Amino acid sequence: MLSGHTVELRMPQESDVLENNWHHWYNDYSRTRYNNHGVFPLSRRQELAFVQAASTQSDSIMLAVVEKATQRLLGNVSLQNIDLLNRRCYLSITLGEDSPITANIEAFGLMTEHAFMRLNMNRVEAMTHENLLTLVDMMSIFGYVKEGRGRKYFLKDNKWADSIMFSVLADEYFACRAARNNYVLFKTQDELYDASKAALRDQ
């Protein structure tokens, strides 16, 4: 459905869940240390039911993230709580397989583009663990700005951690897009990577 330099976003297939590690991403302690998953055990069938239900909801879009060169399943990305009246939605991403940092950035950028260009959103918002602040800083290349912290938002391993809330408005996104000659993900993968690194230095 959506294509970047190294990843593609497409509708999830039953085989993605039943024949890959999809359900394992949400059971693995090491991969859920920065989110609310990894608490209750989740089977393949349970996860398949969740994915199938998500595909029928009118207020969400879930897409699988796959590596273009190999079609290897990397994770999923979704727009949730799509509010057509107030023109806002929430973006969530899970990359459960080892992949370059640009894969995460590409998936985030492609879904942000879809929200503004096809769903006519005016605001896309997201939230993540305080230890993933580097990723938030990189998203500034798409116009995202930090809005604040949710104090003591996560409790894992008997330790509290804050959440980072960030968002982008339509005019901010399109200004960033225009500055790179309207390329969604810059012209090349190298330019995307360099811009992401520069965003970290500017913070």
Overview in brief:
Strand 3 and strand 4 (73-83) form a beta hairpin. An eight-stranded mixed β-sheet has the order 1-2-3-4-5-6-8-7. The chain has 203 residues and is of the alpha+beta class.
Task: Explain what the structure shows.
- The chain is α+β, with helices and mostly antiparallel strands and about 200 residues long.
- It has a single domain, classed as Aminopeptidase, CATH 3.40.630.
- Helix content is about 35%, strand content about 30%.
- The chain contains 7 helices and 8 strands; from the N terminus they run E-E-H-H-H-E-E-E-H-E-H-E-E-H-H.
- The chain has an 8-stranded mixed beta sheet.
- The radius of gyration is 17 Å and the shape is globular.
- The model has no long low-confidence stretch (mean pLDDT about 90).
Secondary structure topology:
Layout: E1 2-3, E2 7-10, H1 14-18, H2 22-25, H3 44-54, E3 61-67, E4 73-83, E5 88-95, H4 101-117, E6 123-129, H5 133-138, E7 145-156, E8 159-169, H6 170-179, H7 189-202
Parallel strand pairs: 5-6
Antiparallel strand pairs: 1-2, 2-3, 3-4, 4-5, 6-8, 7-8
Note the quaternary state here.
single chain
- CATH A-level architecture: 3-Layer(aba) Sandwich
Arithmetic mean pLDDT: 92
Strand order of the biggest β-sheet: 1-2-3-4-5-6-8-7
Total of helices: 7
The biggest beta sheet reads: 8 strands, mixed
Rg, rounded, reads: 17 Å
What low-confidence regions span 5 or more consecutive residues with pLDDT below 50?
A: none
CATH fold-level topology: Aminopeptidase
- Give the overall silhouette: globular
